[in-house]
# Entry
Amino acid sequence: MGSVQSRFLFDESGITEFEVRPIQLDDLAGFRDAMARVAAERRYLLTVELPSPENTEVYIRHNVEQNHAQYVAVIDQQIVGWADIIPHVRDSVRHVARLGMGVVAEQRGQGIGNQLLERAMNHAWERGLKRLELEVFADNEVALNLYRKHGYEVEGVKRFARCLDGVYQDIVIMGQYRV
# Structure
């Protein structure tokens, strides 16, 4: 679960290597920067204002200590994406975990999200989780296709669930399970 995997991106300037690895405690600043960049787009995340550095550090520390599935993608020592699948805390739903992920705009479409999702899901299943779930905006076709590719199925739609900058968005609820 803890090994690093490297992949290669191909672009007009040549080959760029990226790695997907478990998050580390010293990734706080890079993780927050990547989240801030995606959140600033105000399109893909429910979060538009980041939690404090202190709350983010508590979150990362807890996930590292509990061996939860939280991964980052790194290019040239810069975090460019993340995926985490974190179990619920209530006893009756501890077998269920929720996915959150993002990739910075300039690195999308290159397989980074695919690798992040694959690693986080494998980790979650290996930890014995039985149900993985997520919410995604209905107009995010790229993400919907990625989640379908990895076995998620649509379980419902929350109509007009978000209104930001005067724009309403539906939220699609997706899940998969191994019971």
User: Anything to note?
Assistant: The radius of gyration is 16 Å. Strands lie at 5-11, 14-22, 69-75, 78-87, 96-103, 131-137, 153-164, 167-177.
